[in-house]
């Protein structure tokens, strides 16, 4: 299955009472696919505030996304957790709703061993028939899926890709050693171009909510051999890549990108506790990124 080169981890839009705004949910999908040129969408990933969505909200999000996409893109459901049994349950439910693939974050908090990670993913993979994308984000989970473990998992037939938020050294090790056809995506917007340079397929992005068209041009330039132009675009986009995550006080995603979308007139609301909305100072900083 081809997920393309630019996958957007979609925000979950909320109304003023922090309930999911289903009308805006569809509007955001249209905007990301048509205006920002995303190839695929992750629904209920970290950027979609999966930790504070109920299971019922996740399942309805998967179902609505599949129906509204109408085959325009691949729908990737975030169904991973620190509990293997519950991950299996949610993954099987998402498969029945017709999603194209699953994104499975490494188990967080309980910090399993590398063998535990392997067995966790193997058990989920054996419980479904659709493709699985691993999601390695040590800064959030407290555990790194080591390259050797990812390579080992790449030989399980329906584990087809990884979103890896580590450095290009680790990406290179995976790309070099993984099973033929296994896809590697960076999970760090600022590493999009360096990741492509070492053989990654593309990016699972947050910044593509607001600069997707520009990222698409950068990616296409690189793939067409226009390396200098791709590097120039990377330099121009880097302040936005970094700004959306570094803000003045390192505001956790997705609060900054939600505010950026609100500034663009695509009202996606605030964030649920324990996340908090950006401050006035942070709002000014985010606005300055697009001045």
Automatic annotation (TrEMBL):
The record marks 46, 109 as: Part of a proton relay during catalysis. Belongs to the DapA family. It comes from Paenibacillus oleatilyticus. Keywords: Amino-acid biosynthesis, Cytoplasm, Diaminopimelate biosynthesis, Lyase, Lysine biosynthesis, Schiff base. The active site is at 135 (proton donor/acceptor), 163 (schiff-base intermediate with substrate). SUPFAM superfamilies: Aldolase. This is 4-hydroxy-tetrahydrodipicolinate synthase. Its EC number is 4.3.3.7. Pfam families: DHDPS. GO terms for molecular function: 4-hydroxy-tetrahydrodipicolinate synthase activity. The gene is dapA.
């Amino acid at each position: 299955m081809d997920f393309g080169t630019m996958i957007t981890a979609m925000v979950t839009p909320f109304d003023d009472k922090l309930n999911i705004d289903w009308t805006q949910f569809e509007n955001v999908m249209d905007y990301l696919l048509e205006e920002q040129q995303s190839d695929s969408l992750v629904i209920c990933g970290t950027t979609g505030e999966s930790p504070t969505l109920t299971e019922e909200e996740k399942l309805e999000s998967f179902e609505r996304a599949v129906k509204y996409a109408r085959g325009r893109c691949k729908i990737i459901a975030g169904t991973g957790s620190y509990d293997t049994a519950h991950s299996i349950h949610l993954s099987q439910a998402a498969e029945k709703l017709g999603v194209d693939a699953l994104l499975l974050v490494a188990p967080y908090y309980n910090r399993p061993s590398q063998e535990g990670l392997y067995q966790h993913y193997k058990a989920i993979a054996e419980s479904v028939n659709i493709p699985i994308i691993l999601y390695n984000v040590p800064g959030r989970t407290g555990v790194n899926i080591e390259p050797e473990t990812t390579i080992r998992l790449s030989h399980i037939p329906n584990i087809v890709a990884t979103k890896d938020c580590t450095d290009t050294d680790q990406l290179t090790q995976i790309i070099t050693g993984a099973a033929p056809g296994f896809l590697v995506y960076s999970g760090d917007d600022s590493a999009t171009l360096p990741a492509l340079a070492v053989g990654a397929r593309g990016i699972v992005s947050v910044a593509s909510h607001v600069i997707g068209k520009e990222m698409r041009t950068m990616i296409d330039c690189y793939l067409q051999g226009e390396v200098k132009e791709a590097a120039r675009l990377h330099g121009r986009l880097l302040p936005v890549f970094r700004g959306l995550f570094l803000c003045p006080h390192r505001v956790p995603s997705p609060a900054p990108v939600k505010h950026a979308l609100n500034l663009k007139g695509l009202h996606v609301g605030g964030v649920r506790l324990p996340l908090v909305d950006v401050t006035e100072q942070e709002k000014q900083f985010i606005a300055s990124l697009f001045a």
